[in-house]
Amino acid sequence: MNSIIYLAEAAAPQQQASMLQLFLPLIIVFGLMYFLTIRPQKKRDEELRKQINAMQVGDQVVTIGGITGRIFNIQSDEVTISTSVQNTLLTFKKTAIAHVISDRPQETAAATKKETAGEKKDAKESKEE
Q: Do residues 56 and 35 lie in contact, with contact meaning Cβ atoms separated by under 8 Å?
């Protein structure tokens, strides 16, 4: 009788180990799916949300339908864009914006480079004196 209890106790850890071996590949697959698909998509969504909140009149946008144009007016949840040469005005919801193209960050980066270059030049001149 003692040998039956001993055999039952010896079989229990093997059963737990086999459950772990069964679920470990599933856990790894779900982890890979998260890091390869879900997480990058969340980052792209957050970046687009920041672009939409920072857009200003004059920025160029692309809608989810593929229409491109310059922002003419921004209201609370709507954006009016001017397209083509005839300045056709179209109004879209902000959620219909797929991409914002802005020249300002490049201009500010160039201005910052000029300022730092000027500061370095001034620092050099002051060291020479």
A: no
| Nearest partner of 61 among 51, 70, 73, judged by Cα | 70
- Sequence spans of domains, the chain: 1-54, 56-129
Q: How far apart are CA 64 and CA 78, in angstroms?
A: 14
What CA–CA distances, in Å, run from 64 to 79, 98, 100, 127?
13, 5, 11, 55
Residue of 76, 33, 34 lying closest to 53 (CA atoms)? 76
Decide the pairing of beta strands 60-63 and 97-101: antiparallel
Beta strands in 25-95 (DSSP E): 60-63, 68-74, 78-83, 88-93
Question: Tens digit of pLDDT for each residue in 66-87?
Answer: 999 999 999 999 999 999 888 8
Cβ neighbors of 60 (< 8 A, separation 6 or more) are: 68, 69, 70, 71, 100, 101, 102
The H or E element spanning position 98 is strand 97-101
**What would the CATH number be for the domain defined by 56-129?**
2.30.30.60
**pTM metric for this prediction:** 0.59
